[in-house]
Amino acid sequence: MTEIAPAPLAPRIQPAAVLELLKPITWFPPIWAFGCGVVSSGAALAPRWPIVVAGLVLAGPMVCATSQAVNDWFDRHVDALNEPHRPIPSGRIPGRWGLYVALIWTVLSLGVATLLGTWGFAAAALGLALAWAYSAPPIRLKQNGWWGNSAVGLCYEGLPWITAAAIMSAEAPSWQVLAIALLYSAGAHGIMTLNDFKSIGGDRVSGVNSLPVLLGAERAARLACITMALAQIAVLALLLAWSRPVHAAIIAVLIAAQLVLMRRLMTDPRALAPWYNGTGVLLYVLGMLVTAFALAGMSA
């Protein structure tokens, strides 16, 4: 009697691969921006800890993680060229599970956002909408480096900061908070440009018009440096206008240090972009916290 071979088991999704898909390392920028928003509000933390924790979870492990899953799903063909070891192109997340994870995390994020009131829910909904618009057709903002980097800068820096300030004060943020959050979002456009250097080859082949592809490595790096520097110089000017000389002095030192690092970056932008992301960007985000303390002092 002929034995019938058992049917092969369907490939299973691996929890470790899902965590890799959600990219915990990318959660830091929105979590940091949310923390800066909390500080800038000047509000006491003691009675608001549950809201703060929920906001931090929403900013990083939920909304940012959703954007990573969405991006990896719709970029799976590009990643097969640039980074074939990623969970989806490598097959560690099989079938359409990459899309399912993105959808599940979107719904969960909206659920967590309901805990943060109107401001928190509205910001999360906008952030999620931009995450899908960034990667998914027919909009696919990332096809154009100007629009795509603007969307990411806003989601990573401006929205979390403004949301935190709003929920901590239970009212619309002041124009000073809005101005600072938007300036740091504008500067983050440059950070996103440098982040695109790692995928120039695949982007060019697949038709993704990142700024390094559109402008070339040297011009894109120069634009990134100018964008980051001008945003911080504008912050410095506002701090001086608001009579915060100590905070302004610290920002000036941080800008000067970044200019030194930028000079080295321009000697070989393509090779040194990852190095700058680990050095100059650190100084950029430290400046965000300094500015947040300046705003807190103004609201005291």
Keywords:
300 residues, mainly alpha
Note down, in words, how this protein is organized.
The protein is mainly α. Helix content is 75%, strand content 0%. It has one domain. About 2% of the residues have low confidence.
How many beta strands in the DSSP annotation?
0
Multimeric organization: single chain
Structural class: mainly alpha
The helix/strand series, from N terminus to C terminus, equals: HHHHHHHHHHHHH
- Report the portion of residues in β strands: under 5%
Integer tally of domains: 1
- Any idea what the radius of gyration is? 21 Å
Name the overall outline: globular
- Proportion of helical residues: over 70%
Number of helices: 13
TL;DR?
The chain is mostly helical and 300 residues long. It has helices at 15-22, 28-41, 49-74, 76-82, 97-113, 117-135, 145-169, 175-195, 200-206, 211-215, 217-241, 245-265, 269-299.
